[in-house]
């Protein structure tokens, strides 16, 4: 046999602490056909700085779709099917780099996904630039060993082969046709070269993670052995590996035979149904499994054909709505007939390669009036790759190499719903059959009507009122995830274990908005001291900070007077400009220079915020530059007057020192104490402290300025006039 090795690599990604699925870094690979060995090379590394500590990286694997993970232990939505992912842990201790290998023999061909993430996020809000986080990098490479001339086992044709040694197993493959109800594999005429007892092991199927349903058959002696498989995967190559369990030098000669039982589908619709579609359905490919095209004179429902066939296939149209958004429509109406003789089958096509990043939702509704037997039950099964053709209590909705998802309908429970998170790329089937407690003969003539709705959506229920559905991308692959807020958690933001109550949400909104009213004393002081430009800036900041935080709330207490991004930009701009004008006002420079610095600084601050809105130097840069100007001006004033400036000790004790203290406390709270849980009151404290510090730090008005005399500004009363004319003296 000729083996070919291939190598696939993707660029490294920087890992993040986990709070939602968007923090997990996804790697997407495609395993070619006839692969007999798959090896993952996982490389993890960290920085060398003192902030880098030992860390545990969790890596998840899955075939066919991104892995469904739950590192936080939250609840999934009701009716959602969850199977734990296969994962390993990589520890970065004293070593800066860690290399791990993961081997998978006879892997399934198609898409494979790897997701890696760090432990749960601490929830601390870090100001960008105050601290340097440690970079943790992860890279996944894939090696495959592929057999180029794998022998093909033809159905019904015996194939003799020889297993040379236990170290060199035999690989063959057989193609499973469409509508195969069962497969029987036989191993016979087993002979060893050393005339010893024959001992071989046969592995049928490929390995898929997180769950693998590879079937094993062990044959000893010269007797024939066989294995029967129900519902093998349709229209796929099935790998078969034969291993020798004998001594190292003994070869084994065997004869293999594969045979299939094919199910003949019944006709539920004529060709006229397809050509009579409306314009919106034109061009859609009917996804009916095995739907036939009888003559134009045949009735749409052939009762005799339904009774003699092993399944009734309903034609289904796949309608693509948007990215990871598909709706399935039944051509014969939303209701499908279900009987007890053969299952009713619906094909849900999810094999485009871009459908595995959403959620498949199946809704079933039983028409109570259509069931003549009160104790009858409609059993349904949703499965991938092949349908379940014999629905009963003992089969448990399983096929040859996979486990389906069972559903049940009755007159007492007429509704059922199923949510498949990240369905694997394949053809999915919905099988329905009517069961009676007294056996099949009791309800042989009964028929039930079931309304079926199936659709693919990026996020189930659009993540609810406390979540945001985000479309994520890894190279050309798109998938969706829910980002929860207001303490809600879970895959679809349905876990209310740590959720904030409506009262807590209202309190948070009131604190974050009403705390901005503490700018009113600063505005009043600025107006009283004739600092009208500064007062205008404080008013601007108070207004936009109030409505930005009213729009930024995660819960139901939200009010947005304009676009969120605009409110955020105006809030950040007003905050930095307020600090800028306050420090320049304290510098006591000439008015012309002060207003030039006001305008020029505001323009530069607006530019820097547009480049990086959350950078720490957008605030620290203007503050430091303004402080340099203020200190220079104070030194100039002090040198000119010959004493310290400001000269009044009362000014230092009762105004400057309290204002500076409040400003430093505010910066400490803003930079080091804010977390996701305490944000609403720590940030409110930031608002109060900054506003109060501004009121203390504003300098007194100029001496030549008279205080506001409102009584003299009013003209609606009699006034005593005064003649201020100067007398002119003439020189003679």
Automatic annotation (TrEMBL):
Task: Using the UniProt record, give the first listed, main subcellular location.
Answer: membrane
Q: Which Cys-Cys disulfides exist here? A: 459-469, 484-493
* Listed GO CC annotations: plasma membrane
Record-annotated membrane-spanning stretches: 507-531, 592-611, 617-636, 652-673, 679-698
Name the record gives this protein: TMM8A factor
Residue spans of biased composition, Polar residues class: 301-313
Keywords assigned by UniProt?
A: Cell membrane, Disulfide bond, EGF-like domain, Membrane, Transmembrane, Transmembrane helix
Gene name linked to the record: Tmem8a
Record's bilayer topology term: Multi-pass membrane protein
Q: Could you tell me the superkingdom of the organism this chain comes from?
A: Eukaryota
Q: Where is this region: Disordered?
A: 285-313
């Amino acid at each position: 046999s000729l083996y070919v090795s291939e190598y696939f690599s993707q660029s490294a990604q920087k890992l993040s602490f986990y709070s939602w699925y968007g923090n997990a870094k996804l790697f997407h690979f495609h395993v070619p056909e006839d692969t007999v060995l798959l090896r993952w090379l996982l490389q993890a590394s960290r920085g060398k700085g003192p902030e880098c500590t030992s860390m545990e990286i969790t890596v998840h694997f899955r075939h066919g779709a991104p892995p469904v993970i739950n590192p936080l232990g939250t609840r999934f939505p009701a009716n959602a099917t969850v199977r734990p992912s296969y994962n390993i842990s990589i520890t970065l201790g004293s070593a800066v780099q860690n290399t791990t290998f993961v081997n998978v023999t006879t892997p399934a061909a198609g898409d494979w996904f790897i997701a890696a993430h760090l432990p749960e996020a601490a929830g601390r809000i870090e100001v960008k630039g105050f601290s340097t986080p440690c970079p943790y990098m992860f890279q996944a490479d894939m090696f495959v060993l592929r057999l180029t001339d794998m022998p093909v086992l033809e159905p019904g044709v015996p194939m003799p082969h020889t297993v040379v040694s236990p170290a060199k197993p035999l690989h063959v493959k057989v193609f499973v046709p469409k509508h195969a109800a069962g497969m029987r594999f036989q191993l016979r005429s087993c002979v060893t070269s050393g005339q010893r007892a024959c001992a071989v092991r046969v592995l049928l199927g490929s390995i898929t993670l997180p769950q693998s349903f590879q079937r094993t058959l062990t044959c000893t002696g010269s007797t024939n052995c066989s294995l029967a498989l129900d519902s093998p995967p349709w229209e796929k190559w099935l790998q078969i590996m034969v291993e020798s369990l004998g001594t190292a030098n003994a070869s084994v000669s065997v004869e293999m035979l594969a045979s299939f039982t094919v199910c003949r589908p019944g006709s539920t619709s004529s060709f006229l149904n397809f050509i009579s579609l409306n314009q919106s359905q034109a061009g859609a490919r009917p996804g009916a499994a095995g739907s036939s095209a009888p003559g134009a004179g045949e009735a749409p429902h052939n009762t005799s054909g339904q009774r003699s066939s092993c399944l009734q296939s309903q034609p289904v149209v796949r309608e693509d709505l948007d990215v990871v958004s598909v709706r399935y429509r039944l051509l014969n109406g939303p209701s499908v007939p279900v009987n007890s003789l053969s299952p009713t089958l619906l094909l849900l096509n999810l094999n485009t390669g871009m459908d595995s990043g959403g959620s498949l939702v199946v809704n079933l509704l039983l028409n109570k009036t259509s069931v003549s037997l009160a104790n009858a039950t409609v059993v349904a099964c949703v499965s991938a790759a092949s349908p379940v053709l014999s629905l009963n209590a003992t089969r448990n909705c399983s096929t040859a190499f996979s486990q389906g998802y069972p559903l049940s309908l009755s007159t007492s429970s007429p509704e059922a719903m199923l949510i498949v998170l990240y369905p694997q790329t394949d053809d999915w089937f919905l099988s329905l059959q009517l069961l009676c407690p007294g056996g099949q003969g009791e309800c042989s003539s009964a028929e039930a009507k079931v309304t079926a709705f199936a659709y693919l959506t990026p996020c189930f229920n659009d993540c609810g009122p406390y979540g945001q559905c985000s479309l994520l991308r890894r190279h050309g692959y798109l998938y969706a995830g829910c980002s929860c807020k207001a303490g809600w958690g879970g895959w679809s933001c349905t876990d209310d274990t740590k959720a904030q109550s409506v009262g807590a949400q209202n309190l948070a909104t009131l604190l974050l908005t009403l705390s901005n009213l503490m700018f009113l004393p600063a505005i009043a002081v600025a107006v009283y001291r004739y600092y009208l430009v500064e007062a205008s800036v404080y008013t601007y900041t108070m207004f936009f900070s109030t409505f930005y935080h009213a729009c930024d709330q995660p819960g139901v207490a939200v009010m947005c007077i304009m676009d969120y991004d605009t409110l955020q930009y105006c809030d950040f701009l007003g905050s930095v400009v307020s600090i800028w004008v306050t420090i320049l006002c304290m510098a006591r420079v000439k008015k012309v220079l002060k207003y030039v610095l006001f305008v020029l600084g505001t323009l530069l601050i607006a530019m820097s915020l547009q480049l990086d809105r959350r950078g720490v130097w957008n605030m620290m840069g203007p503050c430091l530059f303004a402080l340099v100007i203020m200190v220079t001006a104070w030194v100039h004033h002090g040198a000119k007057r010959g004493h310290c400036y400001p000269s009044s000790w009362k000014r230092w004790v009762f105004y400057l020192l309290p204002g500076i203290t409040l400003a430093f406390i505010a910066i400490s709270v803003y930079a080091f104490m804010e977390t996701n849980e305490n944000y609403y009151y720590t940030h409110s404290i930031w608002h109060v402290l900054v506003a109060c510090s501004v009121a203390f730090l504003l300098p007194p008005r100029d001496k030549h300025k008279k205080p506001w005399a409102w009584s003299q500004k009013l003209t609606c009363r009699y006034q005593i006039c005064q003649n201020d004319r100067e007398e002119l003296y003439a020189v003679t």
